[in-house]
Amino acid sequence: MQLSYLGINVEKLDAQWNAILFDVLGLEARPREEGEPLQLRVDDRHHRISLYPTGENGTAYVGWEADTQAEFDRVLRGLREQGVACEEADARLCAERAVMRMVYFEGPDGVRTELAFGGVVDGQPFKPSRATSGFNTGEQGLGHILMASADPAATVQWYQDKLGFKVSDYIHWDEAKATFLHCNPRHHSLAIMNPCFGTGAGELNHLMLQARSIDDVGRGYDEVQRLGIPLALTLGKHTNDHMTSFYMMTPGGFAIEYGYGGRTIEDEEEWEVQFYNAPKLWGHNLGKAQD
Fold first, then answer.
1. Residue limits of the VOC domain (predicted)?
2. CATH number of 2-119
């Protein structure tokens, strides 16, 4: 299982979005017509991120992908047996998501959640919009997301029971209480916390993209400062996944974390769940966006 793709509604696609997506992150935009979603590539997949210019900000959908057809069938069967109403996507919707098969359903806090199989690998190589070494995706998927929930404990249990996620660790700091979950070797693909720091129930707090080189992150940080992009958190290193990263505030009201060096969970038997009282080892100070 992996975080396969993400759909975000945005008020508008403006110069600030372009600076973050292309000047800092180096994503590749697929060709589009006026009014169509902006589909963004981060690797050999057709696309993994879609921005919809709807006139308002919010999460459109979160897409999780099974590694095999057998896993897709097993998870889908389990969802239906547990009373989750799953709708089969038609050919048009599967083409828009660039997957072989997909079902969608309502997840915790009303978030549209999708289960897919067979993400399209594009015939053309990924062409970053600035010189980078690319992103750490593959079996680990797009990256990770942190979302707030009205009932975090119930939401964590939902992902464990319905999609088979496992707890990586916990961090409680200031007003936040966060649980980190994994579904592949990435330390966490999903984190759930109580509503805080301006993030309401069902809202996206941040998306993390992991670079293949610390130099990509460093040069991206230089670009953020050169372009005056608001920082949510300055450069720093996390306690739990050991990611060295910084957080940019987007016009969509959520942050994008750009990082390198996150540790992985290779052996479930050997992994020890920890409880931390701080999210950072160093850095990650509040940026201009929250002064």
1. 2-118, 141-261
2. 3.10.180.10
Is the pLDDT score of 146 beyond 80?
A: yes
Average pLDDT, whole number, for the chain?
A: 97
What's the whole-model pTM score? Answer: 0.96
Domain boundaries, the chain: 2-119, 138-290
CA 207/CA 189 separation, integer angstroms: 10
The answer to whether the Cα torsion of 27, 184, 190, 108 is positive or negative is positive
Local confidence band at 228 (pLDDT 50, 70, 90 cut-offs): very high
pLDDT of residue 232: 97
CATH topology of domain 138-290: 2,3-Dihydroxybiphenyl 1,2-Dioxygenase; domain 1 (3.10.180)
